Amino acid sequence: xxxxxxxxxxxxxxxxxxxxxxxxxxxxxxxxxxxxxxxxxxxxxxxxxxxxxxxxxxxxxxxxxxxxxxxxxxxxxxxxxxxxxxxxxxxxxxxxxxxxxxxxxxxxxxxxxxxxxxxxxxxxxxxxxxxxxxxxxxxxxxxxxxxxxxxxxxxxxxxxxxxxxxxxxxxxxxxxxxxxxxxxxxxxxxxxxxxxxxxxxxxxxxxxxxxxxxxxxxxxxxxxxxxxxxxxxxxxxxxxxxxxxxxxxxxxxxxxxxxxxxxxxxxxxxxxxxx
Amino acid sequence: xxxxxxxxxxxxxxxxxxxxxxxxxxxxxxxxxxxxxxxxxxxxxxxxxxxxxxxxxxxxxxxxxxxxxxxxxxxxxxxxxxxxxxxxxxxxxxxxxxxxxxxxxxxxxxx
Lengths: 275, 111
Fold this sequence. Notes:
The complex is a heterodimer.
Chain A: E1 3-9, H1 14-17, H2 24-43, E2 48-54, E3 68-71, E4 75-78, H3 83-86, E5 91-94, H4 97-107, E6 114-116, H5 123-132, E7 139-145, H6 155-170, E8 176-181, H7 198-209, H8 213-216, H9 224-231, H10 238-248, E9 249-260, E10 265-274
Parallel strand pairs in A: 1-8, 2-7, 2-8, 3-6
Antiparallel strand pairs in A: 1-10, 3-7, 4-5, 9-10
Helix pairs in contact in A: 2-5, 4-6, 6-10
Chain B: H1 2-15, H2 17-25, H3 27-35, H4 41-48, H5 52-58, H6 62-71, H7 76-90
Helix pairs in contact in B: 1-2, 1-6, 2-3, 5-7
């Protein structure tokens, strides 16, 4: 089999942890669309879900920072955050070490991915799972990309990583879903928290939905300096969206894309056809 | 190298219950814990006092600092205010990618 589902979504900790501080109707609308994305994912009956998240110094530090890494264990734990702060209780999440190893072997043919048999999920993975696989009973293959500690993973390498993941999935008998988490523009964990750039977000997601590789990899539009200036340090997380677009090769459909300032992000949920 | 050590401490504090226990115990246990990191006096005092504003200005990565606030029992609004006040008191963020770009009284999310 291969990929049976692809999508992207926000992962900000406020989505669950500060839900009580948001306008109830606005929050409910986003949560409903996030759950709808989960219903679509589960309807695809995946054996495993690859979650491509952004590194937040939960598992890797600047003593040894991989450009990208994949989990290779039968079980993971999370969240690393205070459960009361995040609004998600600590739990064990099943993995699939054998599937991970097969995927990693194939990815390594073209991309020098790091791997880890130990991985603690932070909000980058567990907030999306709270909505997508809320029983925490679906096998997860955690993946991350360095969007945090410069020098960051180049955009074209995030794309190449997506292509390698797709090739690996094509060789696996399992039904696999892939979800990228993070972005789009935001200035999290600063006094600017809540600031977004709606125009920048709209343009980026137009390119993403069209799977416009040239536009998404534009060195002029999305170089790190331009992204930092126009989309904040949270904008660096577009790398996970690029990886999913490269893997899915399809066209995107936006379920939700509206800023909720107390959540610190343009709250996004979108699917992409697998072609 | 010192900013690196300060952030390494927060990385380990966020991940390891034993580091959290030693920090929370305070006194000699906290002092012995902090002795393990190459911190200068300013950094060590900021960590010891849970001075979020100072740590923010010193350049601590936001994803690391964000977890220190709830560990100190600090609500979200107070954490945001502490960073804002830190910039007002100590000047702009000195390193890293988490600089403040809004005005001191500009509460984007209402907090």
